[in-house]
Amino acid sequence: MKLVDVPAATIRCRNLIAGEWRDASSGETRDVVSPYTGSVVGTVPMSSASDVAAAVESAHHAWQSWRRTPLKERTQLLFRYREILLRDLDLLSHRAALEAGKTVEEARAGIMKGIEVAEFALSLQNLDDGGALEVSRGVTCEVRREPLGVCVGITPFNFPAMVPMWLYPIAVTLGNAFILKPSEKVPLTAVLQAERMLEAGFPKGVFSLVHGGRETVEALVDHPLVAGVGFVGSSGAARAVYTRASNRGARALCLGGAKNVLMITPDADPDVTIPGVVASFTGCAGQRCMAASLLVAVGDVDHLIDGIVERASQVRLGRDMGAIIDHGARERIVHDIDRAVAEGAKLRLDGRAPEAPEGYAQGAWLGPTILDHARADMECATKELFGPVITIVRVKNLEEALAIEASGTYGNACSVFTSSGAVARHVADRATSGMIGVNVGVPVPREPFSFGGTKTSRYGAGDVTGRQGVEHWSWLKKITTKWQMQGDATWMS
Ligand code: NAD
């Protein structure tokens, strides 16, 4: 069975700078390998500081007229872009699936969520009317929202379309010029997005694409003309980028990794809980920052855990769940599972040696894995494994569950499955994570609500997307004006 479209020829990705497609000036490239096939499907340029400087300077030039283009005119281009993405949804979904290892349905859902952010940005023309008030006789205070200037977005491999779209539709609509530095593991979908931004009519330099790795990111973040940074990735890199950008006064919001906690209670509805938990830890093969990773079982919930094991054992690789990003990541996760077992966790479901889907023997496959009776201080209960693995810690009561949640170094998401409104409310009140779910395994806020965690899951103020995204990519100019009738010319009276 064919799981994803594979292009006939290798795709050569290039940078988009000043509206032109260019290779890295050094000529250096890296292979793009599909998690499905284990084969090279593209090449990506590894850009240096001189490529970055060219992109930033052209973006800065483009910004001079873009910032003066009325909001309603800027918005029209984003309307067109949205239509083009919907027209090409199949192509984008297959390309994102091919390079990130997702199922095509998951890739499509990610693109639609990205489009939802664009739709929020489209509504800004009707919402963002600023404000003005006569503060004393003849004196008016007025506030205007201004773009920051050249902004950059640095994004991870796991959502090739959605995470970039958390950032650039709002930033560009507000009048910024934007440079995207996608993950070097998934540059193909970013190229499709950039081509379509050009087709929609965004002026040259308003949207640019610069590929590369850490060196490219550092050159972007250090460039004095870059005023705003949005980063999404692992916590170590998020912290490094945040420190670097904010040290020189650039505005930065950097989202990091996660170890999301799901609590299940004896009164939870099995029909909601079992599919909710399994979808949360196996969706996107566990490679999403909202995936359930630590299941805290409160009291006697064996019937729920048996149901979770049974349902997870039926997940079909390739059809229901995609592949791990590469063989290196797959081996790292297998090693983490080995270690958890050696430390005493009980393996209820072992996905370490699954059968590959027919025709995809070279892919990086890992089946759903359930580690039961782990201790809360074990590595499998505290570290982000970023695979389809869930660790179960058993506790006697809700207080113990809340203490485990609070002790985590990450603070992205926490969900509780219960039939009690009082329990749900207690968890929502006490949990320390930025995003809380009640009977929802993946509590992603929808627009216009913003997305973001706490602790090491986020460095910087505010959240991405929604109303908080508007605050991040703009600043407020306050204008105080005094006009009084003073002249004695006869026409004035
Ligand atoms: P990553 O940190 O390896 O890479 C993310 C981006 O940063 C890439 O563009 C990469 O080129 C760049 N980068 C990597 N190391 C860097 C460094 N030291 N300095 C500067 N830039 C660097 O992350 P990944 O493996 O691509 O993605 C998975 C991670 O992203 C997971 O930890 C996941 O939880 C996290 N994530 C978080 C969110 C969120 O909203 N909090 C969303 C998606 C993914």
* Estimated radius of gyration: 24 Å
How many structural units, i.e. domains? 2
For the record, give the distance between the C-alpha atoms at the N and C termini, rounded to a whole number. 85 Å
| Cα shape | globular
| Helical content class | 25-40%
Bound ions, cofactors and other small molecules, one mention each: nicotinamide-adenine-dinucleotide
CATH H level of the largest domain: which superfamily? Aldehyde Dehydrogenase, Chain A, domain 1
CATH architecture of the largest domain: 3-Layer(aba) Sandwich
Individual helix count: 15
Structural class, from secondary structure content?
alpha/beta
* Low-confidence blocks of residues: none
| Largest sheet composition | 7 strands, mixed
CATH topology of the largest domain: Aldehyde Dehydrogenase, Chain A, domain 1
Strand content: 15-25%
GO molecular function, one term: methylmalonate-semialdehyde dehydrogenase (acylating, NAD) activity
Domain Aldehyde dehydrogenase: 21-478
Pfam families: Aldedh (PF00171)
Keywords: Oxidoreductase
